[in-house]
Amino acid sequence: MRLEGKVVLITASTRGIGRATVEACAREGAKVYMAARNLELAKSVADELNAEGCNVKYVYNDATEEETFSTMIDEVIEKEGRIDVLVNNFGTSKPAEDRDLANTDVDVFIKTVNINLKSVFIASQAAVRQMAKTGGGSIINISSVGGQTPDISQVAYGTSKAAINYLTKLTAVHEARHNIRCNAVLPGMTATDAVTNNLTDNFRELFLKHTPIRRMGLPEEIAAAVVYFASDDAAFTTGQIMTVSGGFGLATPVFGDLVGSSERR
User: Which of 56, 64, 86, 118 could be cross-linked to 127 through a Cys-Cys bond (beta carbons 3.0 to 4.6 Å apart)?
Assistant: First the structure.
């Protein structure tokens, strides 16, 4: 029960990594607030977990409604008097439109970077103002290996995630004096609906060819890293950019070709 007594707010929390994080935090004893656009779906998830003895609630957040990134914080404060952990899980991209530099429409680039960055900035700004009043807290930003290792496409998504990595470090430096920590978790290819629906089998195979642990990650494995950063186990850890990617980007660029042609040890 590493999060017992903590109030945790998680964005984009009804499916995939967000939902896995809700479940992991709730089962570690936290009072979890799901920030979601679809409150009916959020209620269904909360009811399921509460039936197991967890404590899960929900608040409204729609990424297209900028003000909801601060009003969701206000609602948690109104109900609980504090927020101990904020998990900025929201992020979006349209792979078919978010291509390389030469072929991505400027509006697609600006809109993608704008919504991904402001979701983290606005929520974090509102959260730190409250955390500073109640003794501190922890912010965990869900970024991506795409923000660390350049790809041949998704110029907007990769740029936005790289910016989030840097914003994570800035937040850690600016807010340490208030006992507020900020870290980022960078998933590699993870078995979520978004991956299934947006990436081809050929792309997945190519990606995993260059991943030393030759499989996709599980949402629960990303959630485990979030729980660590949220817990007091990480009380002396801030400003860290942790990849949870099966080793993607770690090996020589020819790793995928070599491991396929030779299994020598």
Answer: 86
